[in-house]
Automatic annotation (TrEMBL):
SUPFAM superfamilies: P-loop containing nucleoside triphosphate hydrolases (SSF52540). This is Putative ATPase. Residues 21-351 form the AAA+ ATPase domain. Residues 213-243 are annotated as: Disordered. InterPro entries: AAA+_ATPase (IPR003593), ATPase_AAA_core (IPR003959), Bact_Antivir_Def_Nuclease (IPR051396), P-loop_NTPase (IPR027417). Residues 231-243 have a biased composition (Polar residues). Residues 216-230 have a biased composition (Basic and acidic residues). It comes from Donghicola tyrosinivorans. Signal peptide: none annotated. It comes from the Bacteria. The lineage of its organism: Bacteria, Pseudomonadati, Pseudomonadota, Alphaproteobacteria, Rhodobacterales. SMART domains: AAA.
Amino acid sequence: MLTNLKFANFTAFEKLELSFSPRINVIIGSNGTGKTHFLKAIYGLSLLAGSKYPDRSDEGFAATASGKFLRIFSTEDDRVGTLASKGAQSPTRLSLVSSDDAAVEVTFGVRSQYLEFASGASDPKPSDTPVYIPTKEVLSLVRGIRHPKHDRATVEMIFDDGYVNLAELLVQPGSDEETTGSIEDPRLSNVIRKLVDLVGGRYRLRDDGGFNFEPGRYEEKAKPKTDPSRSESQTARAYQDSTQTRFVSNGSQSFPTGMTAEGYRKIGVLHRLLSNGSINPGETGVLLWDEPEANLNPKLMKEVVQVLLELSRNGQQIVVATHDYVLLKWLDLLIDKKGKEDHVRYHVLQRCEEDGQMSVYSTDDYGQLVTTGISKTFGELYEAEIERSLKGIEL
């Protein structure tokens, strides 16, 4: 579980420090304020923190780790110094701390080729490996990214490692792809069913490495009495040990992923990650999602927010970046601080008009977001609508 993050002289950030909510964190800012750089830095540091290597001071590790970090940002450069703030007079420093006091801290200068690791930093558990979902959907790209006939160097020039790493996670087999098609984890049953209901089916891996969309839905049925996992006790029934949730096709023919809406594919990505255990609340690392609202019908945003809240209630730490008013407002309306102990922390990125430097302020109160560009824009729209209505009355 991530607790604290610090930047110094990193890209547009001269200085930044914040603490994370253990549940949901929302990074807010207009275009060009560094939201994606923020997420990628967390992702890169988390990956480096989980790396296993006998000696972090060894140059071989520094070269490998630096290359991995750079590919996340797709800098087209082989020097980490390109990520330093322009004109920085002191070294760039990035630090990420977890709840068990494990930390990863790196430094580099504007001319540095490799990252330097702080000697006091320790390794988090391997289970802290993060999951990063980029703005563009990836399901339709998986076959091209992983195709054995495609030159790896060319693929990495086109797609940063956020896409490449996610493609590898998406092809992992899911528990619901077996013959039974059942959901093994009862905590995720409602979440997975909701995601499939939103798009009317699921995405399944083909033999050629691509995906097909299979129309259908999940249904809850009683386990056969011969099933050894079934119990007739009252306690077992209370925990749904006597039932199973299975995917049932509606009989329609499957069709290629590219023939479905891009917004549906984004929901399909989340379903795949949950069903194959790449996201396992309480066991895997932070979920980082860049602009969930991109290419998604606003009508679906309420259900997506409900899914995020349910995952956080089961122990999944989440960080999303957005500039979407609909997503923010549904979080405000659906949060249940008392009954479900929901918690959302908003981190607002702002650029100073005088020197162009970025700053951040964090709040747990949605009402404090009235000064953001998002709120101002929607306020202007509302005022313009009222003004037009009043002019109509005057006529």
